[in-house]
Amino acid sequence: MSSSTVVTWLQERTSLAILSERVLTAIAELVQPRELAADSELATEGRPPDGLYILQNGRLGSSLHQPNTAATAGRSPASLLPGTTLYLAELLLDRPCPTTVTALTDVRLWFVPADEFRQLADRYPEINQTLSRQLADQLDSLADAFTYERDRMEALRPYLVPKAKRGIVGKSRYAVRLRSQIRDAGDDRGAVFIFGEPGLEKDNTAALIHYGSPNRRQPIVKLNCGLLQTSGAELFGRAGGKPGLIEWLDEGTLIFNNIEELPEELQPQIVRLLESGTYVPVTRSGEPTETPRVCNAKLIFIGEQHIPEIEHQVTHRIKIPPLRVRKADLGAQVDYYISLYCRAKGITKPRLTPEALRRLQAYDYPQNIRELQSLVERALVQAGETEELTEEIVWPSQSKKKQFRFNLLNAYPGLRHFLRSPWWPDRINYGFTLTFFAIVVAILLFGPQTRDQNFALNLFWAWWWPLILLLFPFVGRLWCAVCPFMIYGEVTQKLSLWLWPRSLKPWPRQVADRWGGWFLFGLFLLIFLWEELWNLENTAYLSACLLLLITAGATIFSAIFERRFWCRYLCPIGGMNGMFAKLSMTELRAQQGTCSAECTTYQCYKGGPQKGEGLETDGCPLYSHPAQLEDNRDCVLCMTCLKACPHRSVELNLRPPGIELWTTHVPRSHEVALIMLLLGGVFLHRLPEIGVELGLSLDLTQFGPHLGWSVAVLAIPVLVPIAAHGAIVAFNSSIEPKRFLEWAYGYLPLVLAGNLAHYLRLGLTEAGRIVPVTLATFGLSGEGWPIWVAHPAVVEFLQGTTIVAGWVLTVVLTQKIARQPWRSLLPQHLASGILAIALWSIIVR
User: Fold this and answer.
1) pLDDT of residue 71
2) 444/438 Cα distance (integer angstroms)
């Protein structure tokens, strides 16, 4: 290529065009053609250049030749195109190469050796003069750029977010999804709306979006919407005056924090900014409106509420999940905060015990992550230099469901061991109850037929009834765990599956939930009438028939349906047990946080093989998950869940008696009907005494009149609560009639007290004769054998005390359930008092 052609090319393509043609001709005479293969290195940073290079064809890449660090992360080599002149200033100023230059493609270059170019520069001072002018121009440009950046940083400094506090901790599906949403929001320039409860560090999520985006080197600022000027000048700038934050930001990120506090005057402008990507600087009154300007910033909105006007315009919506649904991440988060604190204080990191973690998981954290961090730091300060953080040190506030509870299983490890052992209840059921029940029924059928001659009849009426009623306030539905009816039901179920392998039918839950309670109500009504009309208390074979009929129901339904369908929905004794169990001072529950965080198999509910500490079980016989239990009615205390749980989540708590009735209880019409039936049953048991008290001559020898009086006595006491509630509604128009379903549960203590007072007579007189009665059962003389009989005055005192206590508790419970002023509930309190007086008059005598 001729020198004139090279000169023309240099004039048209390179920055050397400012030199005179005489100098360019001298350079053209010295150039040497060179070729460089792709990926070859032309020059290395820090080394002196070997000459002047002019890129003729191809592409070169220029980059810092140093390890990949936070400062250089994500930086790609600068691409150098044809016409680029390399190392002019370095040769003239005797400096090393500032960067490493590599061939991105096969390239062709013109090369002037360093010594020859320096001689040329000495010969032609114009070269140095031209370079000086270029450097001066560049210096002016840099000074202008520096001044702009200084003013820019000065304007943005009060709002800058220097870095993200932390990443998203945890491996739960919520954490994985949140990380994915953050990545997606950072990959484009679309607006983002982040919302969630207080204390979730939503601004940190916004920072993670920015610092994970390609524009991470641009500034990110955060505005508190509640402090913005209503004019918007701070945000949009003033026409002909000071620029606003959007202009200063350029391609940075703008966070609108607490967007729900945005002044109403600014809302239309923010919506326009989202819709069109433009804004208008603020002008003074009377001045012409400015031309709209383009917003290059990425917009992120943060709020605790849904803002439809904003949400409809953004590209990404990110809901930050509250901590209470991320219990699976709690262990990792606590460990992170412990590490953070210990590293800052320079102390040894303690270990969090499993018990402490379960306690933390049992809490719902209304203030979310902020509250958790404060709680962990408080525990570390309290713990000092301990090696472990135990549950005594970690003490979150208690939720309402955990208030006033005391876990017996933690306090008494021996109790936990027993309830997890084969003894409870399997060995008791199959080693004792199964056989003993058969013996009792046989003696009832074939032994003497009166209570003073048949120990099985004495055991059923004088022992079992008073004891089970007495135990309800203490252990709830515990009897159902060793109930012989369902033991025979389980035996039938297992034998039938062995003889006829098949799949048992699933529970018809909808039908059972709707009609099961009414079915057992009907059975209980028939039992009451049968007991009264045929004198079951003193007729052994009829009592046996009653037991056999209930057992038959359990076996039939166990052969058809899986698990204990009869116990859950249809058993009349179970229905009564479940009703009175609501008053119990004990409950079986589970730590919801531990269950949601740790459990993946739900073995306590579904059953499964042994896992860790959890034993192999068939699952809850009543299909109740302990973490979802809110009513003692649905738990028979069989402890299957306690045996199956590998995470020690199950608790056996002491609690205020009946607390569920005024906290989590859901009223049901069939339960209220059963309460009223059990109330009427107490009066039915004392039918002869009612006749005496009222001076009536009741003919109870004829079936028809006896049936009529029995039905009347069952029904009439129910009218008293109904009339009382009608009076409350009549005098207080704000109370709805349907509230009777809720308030009727207030009568439960009085109903239990009335039944217990009735059976106390048998328990305190005839129960003590069990030894001579047992001898008489087998034809032996019981004379001279010890008996234990309470004095009539003691019996009356205990009966009266029971009734009075039942009435007082009824008044207290009614107040707790109704949450109404005492005066507005006066008719119901008077009604319960009338019923208590009536029970006293017919029982205490």
Assistant:
1) 31
2) 10
Contact between residue 454 and residue 540 where contact means Cβ atoms under 8 Å apart: yes
DSSP-assigned letters across all residues of 493-505: HHHHHHHS--PPB
Query: Alpha-carbon distance 825 to 729, whole Å?
Result: 10
- Report the SS3 class of residue 101: strand
Residues 6+ away with beta carbon under 8 Å from 437: 484, 487, 488, 547
Neighbouring C-beta atoms of residue 104, cutoff 10 Å = 16
d(CA 245, CA 221): 9
CB of 235 within 8 A of CB of 249? Answer: no
Q: How many residues does the chain have?
A: 845
Those residues whose C-beta lies under 8 Å from the C-beta of residue 656, and which sit 6 or more positions away, are 404, 585
Q: Give the whole-angstrom CA distance, residue 762 versus residue 770.
A: 12
Residues 6 or more apart whose Cβ sits within 8 Å of residue 588: 626, 629, 635, 637, 639, 641, 642, 650, 651, 652, 653
For residue 180, give Cα distances in angstroms to 176, 177, 185, 214.
6, 5, 9, 16
Write the burial class of residue 772 (CB in 10 Å: 0-12 exposed, 13-18 middle, 19+ buried). Answer: buried
Using CA atoms, how far apart are residues 728 and 742, in angstroms rounded to an integer? 14
Q: Going by C-beta distance under 8 Å and a sequence separation of 6 or more, which residues neighbour residue 640? A: 604, 617, 618, 619, 620, 621
The residues with which 317 forms a beta bridge, in sequence order, are 193
pLDDT given at position 141 = 67
CA 383 to CA 391: how far, in whole Å? 11
Quick check: 732 and 824 in contact, CB under 8 A?
yes
Ramachandran angles phi, psi of 64, nearest 5°: -70, 130
Question: Which of 303, 300, 297 has its CA nearest to residue 316?
Answer: 300
CB 301 within 8 A of CB 257: no
How many CB atoms neighbour CB 580 within 10 A?
A: 25
**Is residue 583 within 8 Å of residue 473, measured between CB atoms?**
yes
- Are 707 and 529 in contact by the 8 Å Cβ rule? The answer is yes
User: In 717-834, which ranges are E strands?
Assistant: none
**Helix 826-843 and helix 792-818, axial crossing angle in degrees, nearest 10:** 160
Instruction: Please name which of 399, 401, 407 lies closest in space to residue 654, comparing C-alpha atoms.
Output: 407
What are the distances in angstroms from CA 272 to CA 292, 293, 310, 314?
11, 12, 10, 12
DSSP conformation letters of 681-697: HHHHHTHHHHHHHHT--
Separation in Å, CA 176 to CA 34, 180, 253, 324, 576: 54, 6, 24, 16, 48
For 658-679, b/e burial (b = at least 16 CB within 10 A) is: bbbbbeebebeebbbbbbbbbb
Token duo for residue 449: 């037929």
Where the chain has pLDDT below 70, the residues are 1, 63-78, 137-142, 144-145, 392, 395-403, 597
Question: Over the stretch 612-624, which tens digit does the pLDDT of each residue have?
Answer: 889 999 999 999 9
Tell me the C-alpha to C-alpha distance, in Å, between residue 194 and each of 133, 212, 271. Answer: 52, 16, 16
What does the pLDDT read at residue 730?
87
* pLDDT tens for each residue of 481-506: 999 999 999 999 999 999 999 999 99
